[in-house]
Design brief:
CATH topology: Rossmann fold
Order of helices and strands: HHHHHEHEHEEHEEHEEEHEHE
Number of domains: 1
Shape: globular
Strand order of the largest sheet: 3-2-1-4-5-11-10
CATH class: Alpha Beta
Helix content: 25-40%
Strand content: 15-25%
Number of strands: 11
CATH superfamily: Vaccinia Virus protein VP39
Bound molecules: S-adenosylmethionine
């Protein structure tokens, strides 16, 4: 392990892996539609074989282009967590997140790290080069396939990196989930972690679900432990832009005091009132580190542009990073 050093591709970013934002976004969309279409026509019994063939083909193409790397999942799995058709963008965003944890929230190489909604281990992959001896990594997610992939590849190579599923309901990510996210008890003891990350998760959860996850985060943090969570926060600056449909994504429908992308599934993408988030953190005993770091999802300012380099949530290929709420357990 490189204990405390950032991965070389993170340090060299800008020189080496120049990624076309437009290509990344469009190719992700097209591939997503194609995968959906194939799923609809291939019978359930033949799906595992079709998936294997698809992964073999896309991995082969990426290998031929010189883009493959062992800790990066196949295209089909990457698209579960975002528009990551380009594996270089997937790695770049993970490495940039870890830089953000270090620069903005003081993550140290010896930290015990909790990845809430870890997906397929995008951040875990980057942390394998940053966390040192004595550090621990635990990740959980409601989606079975991305977690299974991370277990079979990342844990196999880095046994101190653990992944598990928590079978919670989310219409978009796990419609068969049995437990409501507002009831889930995180599967860890009180006071276990130095650092907890929730990236692009609360933008997919309604308020009572967020409230439970934030309270559980506080419970499993050590005293003095820190958490970084991304949100789209509604306040007097952002709300007029949201209601005018000028944000990325467009969130023009009302869900209580929240704003959502579609009324059919409010948790598909949702923005929460900043005052509500502040009250929640205060109520559970997490002190927000001021100022909240503003992303570019609603407006681009010199401060929000400066945050962009950390790729915190939103569309990694467009200027649409989310707000980063960093807080400390008293
Ligand atoms: C946009 S992805 C972000 C994944 C990961 N945090 C990252 O930054 O790469 C949102 C993730 O939240 C997970 N998720 C959604 N609802 C969840 C829930 N109730 N419990 C755990 N994970 C959930 C999804 O399965 C998905 O992996």
């Amino acid at each position: 392990m490189l204990c405390g050093r950032l991965p070389s591709h993170a340090r060299q970013r800008g020189r080496g892996e120049a990624v076309s934002a437009h290509f990344a976004e469009t190719s992700s969309k097209i591939t997503g539609y194609l995968i959906g279409a194939v799923k609809r026509v291939v019978p359930a019994s033949a799906q595992p074989g079709a998936n294997r063939l698809f992964d073999k083909t896309t991995n082969g193409v990426e290998r031929a282009l010189g883009w493959r790397e062992d800790l990066t999942p196949p295209l089909r799995i990457r698209l579960h967590i975002g528009p990551f058709a380009d594996p270089r963008l997937y790695r770049l965003a993970g490495d940039a997140n870890v830089e953000g944890f270090r620069d903005l929230a003081g993550l140290r190489p010896g930290s015990s790290f909790l990845d809430i909604a870890c997906g397929c281990g995008r951040v875990a992959r980057a942390l394998t080069s940053y966390l040192g001896p004595g550090a621990t990594y635990e990740g959980f997610d409601t989606a079975v396939k991305p977690v299974a992939w991370a277990q079979s590849v990342i844990t196999a190579k880095f046994p101190s990196f653990h992944f598990r599923t928590a079978d919670t309901f989310n219409k978009r990510y796990n419609p068969q989930g049995k437990t409501g996210a507002s009831e889930l008890i995180f599967p860890y003891e009180d006071g276990t972690f130095d650092f907890a990350f929730a990236g692009s998760l609360y933008t997919h959860m309604v308020p009572d679900e967020v409230a439970n996850f934030v309270a559980e985060t506080k419970r499993v943090l050590k005293p003095g432990g820190k958490t970084l969570a991304t949100f789209c926060l509604l306040n007097e600056r952002t709300l007029p832009l949201v209601d005018a449909g000028k944000t990325m994504p467009r969130l023009v429908y009302r869900y209580g005091d929240c704003r959502v992308r579609t009324e059919k599934d409010p948790a598909h993408f949702i923005a929460h009132p900043e005052s509500w988030v502040r009250d929640l953190y205060a109520k559970v005993g997490l002190r927000i580190v001021e100022p909240i770091e503003r992303g570019t999802w609603a407006e681009s300012t010199p401060e929000s542009k400066a945050l962009e380099k950390y790729h915190l949530g939103g569309s990694p290929s467009k200027s649409a990073s989310q707000d980063a709420v960093i807080a400390v357990k008293a």
